[in-house]
Amino acid sequence: MSPKVSIIMPVYNKALYLQRTFDALVRQEFKDWELIVIDDGSTDEGQKIIEKYVATDNRIRNKRQKNQGASQARNEGLKLACGEWIWFVDADDLPSHDFLNKAFSVKNDDDAIDLIIGFYSKMFPDGKIKQVHLEEQGKVSSKEIPNLFMKYQYETGYWGYLWNKLIRRSIIIENHLQFQKGLTLAEDLKFMLSVYRNCQLIYILPELAMIYMIDTQNSSSEKKIDYPAQLLIHLEIYRWIVEEQGCDEYVAFLRKQITYYVAFSIFYGFEEKNGFLNLAQKYAGSSEIYPLLDPRGLDSVMKPIGYCVKWKRWGVLKLYLYGRDLLRRLYRHSRKKR
Questions:
Q1: Dist CA 237 CA 26 (whole Å)
Q2: In b/e form, how buried is each residue of 316-337, taking b as 16+ CB within 10 angstroms?
Q3: What average pLDDT does range 112-123 have in this prediction?
C-alpha cells in the first residue's frame, strides 16, 4: 500500500546536519510516510549517517548518484515516489515534528485540495528566530493565488520555497512537471510557478512547517546568480500573472523587475567578459522582452544600461560600461597611493 506522503530529500555534503534532520522526520507524529534520500555524489561522511537510518527504519530509502545538482536529485526522487502527497525537505533544515499531523487533521474537502501550505521560521546565526507567515488562512482558489503571490513573494520569498508545502503528486505527474537541470538559484520558484498554474484549490495552514537555517554551509547567498536564467523566470511570472490571469495592476512592477534582470545580465556579462554586447542585442531583438523594457524606475547604475537597450544605443552602452570600469580602476589606484 502506498504511503500518504513521499518526502524527498536531496543530499550533498550535509553530514553536519543530517542526524538532526533525520531525527525530526522520524519523530513526526504522523507515521504514514516514506523518505526518499538522493545522495547527490557527497564526499563527506553523510552516507554512513544515511545508511544508519535506512537500516533502522524501513520507510527510508536511499539512492546514490554522481553529482548533478539538487534539481536532478529531486527529479530522481519524484521517479521513485509513490505517495499521494510530495514534501520536499532540504537536508540542512529542521522540519516541524507535527506539520504532517496538522496538515491531515484539518477538516476540509481533501480530494479538492492540490496544495497545502504551512508557515516557516528563519533561524539566524545569532540564534534569533523570525516567523514568516501569511495573514490569509484556509482555502484559496486559483483566482486568488496570483494576488497572494504578488503580496508576499517579493518581500519574503514565501511562494518560491518548496519545504513549507505539500504538493498533490497527481498535479506533478499529470502535468509532467520537473525541476530544470542546471539551474542553481530559484529552481524552487520556477518549479512552484508550474504548480500554481495547475492548482485549482490550495489550503493555507496556520501551522509551522519548517525552520529554515540560513547560516548553513553552501547557502544560497554563496551561489553565483545566473541573471539571464532569473530573467526567464520573471518572464514566466509576467505571463502567469498578467497574460493568463489578467492582473494588470502588476504590469508596472513586473516590467521593472524584468528590466532590472536585463540590465543585471548585461552588467555582469561585461564584468565577466562574457559577450555583454551580444546579450544586449539579443534582448533588444526579442519580441517578448523588448516591449516590456521600462528603465524609468531603475537605480542610477542600471538605468543607463536599460535605456541603452531600449534605445538600441550600442556605442553608448560600450562607452558607459568601459568608462565606468576605467573610473573605478583609477579610483582604486589613487586609494592605494595614499
A1: 37
A2: ebeebbeeeeeeeeeeeeeeee
A3: 93
C-alpha closest to that of 128 among 206, 207, 214: 214
- Cβ proximity of 130 and 211 under 8 Å: no
* Rounded Cα gap, residues 153 and 157, in angstroms: 4
Instruction: Tell me the pLDDT tens digit for each residue of 44-93.
Output: 999 999 999 999 999 999 999 999 999 999 999 999 999 999 999 999 99
Contact 192, 159 (CB under 8 A): yes
Q: Are 6 and 82 in contact (CB under 8 A)?
A: yes
From its phi and psi, is residue 246 left (phi > 0), alpha (psi between -120 and 50) or beta? left
Distance, in Å, from the CA atom of 338 to the CA atom of 334, rounded to the nearest integer, reads 7
**pLDDT by residue (tens digit) across 321-338?**
999 999 988 878 777 766
Distance CA 295, CA 189 (A): 25
Q: Cα(191)–Cα(177) distance, rounded to whole angstroms?
A: 7
- CA 315, 320, 323, 326 dihedral sign is negative
- 281 has a pLDDT exceeding 90: yes
Q: How many Cα atoms within 13 Å fall on the side-chain side of residue 101?
A: 11
Q: Which candidate, 297, 230, 288, 284, places its Cα nearest to that of 261?
A: 230
d(CA 270, CA 273): 5
- For residue 107, give the C-alpha cell: 477538516
**Helix 314-337 with 251-271: angle, nearest 10 deg:** 60
Entry pTM = 0.90
Residues 248-253: contacts with CB under 8 Å, at least 24 apart: 250/146, 250/150, 252/294, 252/297, 253/150, 253/154
State whether residue 152 is helix, strand or coil. Answer: helix
